Amino acid sequence: QCWAPPGSDFHCDVSVFTGSFSQLVLTQPPSASASLGQTAKLTCTLSSGYNSYWVAWYQQSPGKSPRFVMRVGTSGIVGSKGDGIPDRFSGSGSGLDRYLTIQNIQEEDENVYYCGANYGTVTQAERK
């Protein structure tokens, strides 16, 4: 979850979200922070050997279901962003890392962000 106390930085608590498909594991750092108006870069790391896979990023507001943001592979966004996702949100990838970048952070970006991986035709993930 992200928040911005008056006069201080914009903080994000990023929930660890792992998906298991045999040996595929996703790892997110426990938190990230950025000031309002600045840029936040969230990371989802695939386990070794899965560098060609894409991940799906999700955004969840309190009391609501996760909302699809975008799929991200090694070369960036795969397909289209989710409905209503602003242009301030972008994706990129490098090696085993898949990034969700939020530019010009706004108060409405205060959410929990998850990543999930695609394996074949199934997208599955487990909140831990």
Placed side by side, the strands forming the largest sheet appear as 9-8-7-12-13
Radius of gyration: 14 Å
Total number of beta strands: 14
User: If classified by CATH, what would the architecture be?
Assistant: Sandwich
- State the domain count: 1
CATH topology: Immunoglobulin-like
Number of H- or I-type helical stretches:
0
Distance between the termini: 15 Å
Q: For this structure, what is the CATH homologous superfamily?
A: Immunoglobulins
Unreliable stretches covering 5 or more consecutive residues: 1-21, 121-128
Quickly give the structural class.
Answer: mainly beta
**N-to-C order of helices and strands:** EEEEEEEEEEEEEE
Shape assignment: globular
CATH class identity:
Mainly Beta
Estimate percent helicity: under 10%
The whole-number mean of residue pLDDT values reads 80
Question: Main β-sheet, in a few words?
Answer: 5 strands, antiparallel
Strand content: over 45%
Defining traits:
Immunoglobulin-like, 0% helix, 128 residues, 48% strand, disordered C terminus, disordered N terminus, 4-stranded antiparallel beta sheet, globular
Question: What is this entry, summarized?
Answer:
This protein has 128 residues and is mostly beta strands. The chain is built from no helices and 14 strands. The chain has one domain: Immunoglobulin-like, CATH 2.60.40.
